[in-house]
Amino acid sequence: MDSSGQDFPTNEQIQHSADEFLNRAIYEQLSSEILDSVADDQLQQTVFDNLMTKMNKDMSNEVEVFLKFTEGQKAVYAIWLLEAEINNGGFNQYYFNPSGKFALYAIDALNLIGAPKYAELVHRANEIYKANEKQITSADGGTLEGFFASYEDNPLEKLDKEFFQLEREENLSALGSTYIRKNKSEFTN
Predict the structure, then answer these.
(1) Which residue of 16, 119, 127, 189 could cross-link 110, Cys pair, CB 3.0 to 4.6 Å?
(2) Quick one: which H or E segment has residue 150?
(3) Residue 118 maps to which CATH number?
């Protein structure tokens, strides 16, 4: 337990969680029955994994395949990437990595699943990134050191804090799972 009273997971709990993730079922085809059998907290991961089976291992066909997805599939894909990148390294990482190419679509995706506050936040992030791209990417140079340097005086940092605050108020994963459950036909193949 830390000084704020928060419990930290034990090594055993972390290992168990990692084992569950690595041994999860990945479906090349999804049916209503499969979707019904998946817990809400695993539903988006299940759909995302299914969508990833459509891509080449080197992701060279990512955009081509993405464009063939249903609107719901596009939304889950774009939001999953957004959320994963922000949780891992903030908006800066999102735009730095290839996931950022879906930044404009993420706004529509968030609105589609009923997350307008997130959509507005991503819209503002897109605007800030566009206006400050040269400054943000100037240190980059394709190196890890450059990537870390890009966090210095980064105007996107305040939006990371807003994103995490919004997550405490409105569960993005729950909104995504609800959308999937209400629109199962968009995810079955």
Answers:
(1) 119
(2) none
(3) 1.20.1420.60
Q: What is the pLDDT of residues 170-181, one digit of tens each?
A: 999 999 999 999
Extract the tokens encoding 127.
């605007």
Cα separation, 185 vs 149, whole angstroms: 45
pLDDT of residue 113: 98
Write down the pLDDT at residue 12: 86
Q: Is residue 17 part of a domain?
A: yes
Q: Which domain holds residue 98?
A: 11-186
Q: What is the tens place of the pLDDT at every residue in 151-161? A: 778 899 999 99
Q: Which residue, 28, 41, 31, 25, is CA-closest to 178?
A: 41
- Domain presence at residue 5: no
Within a domain: 1: no
With respect to residue 174, please indicate whether it lies within any of the assigned structural domains.
Answer: yes
Residue type, 41: D
Contact present, 186 and 72 (Cβ < 8 Å): yes
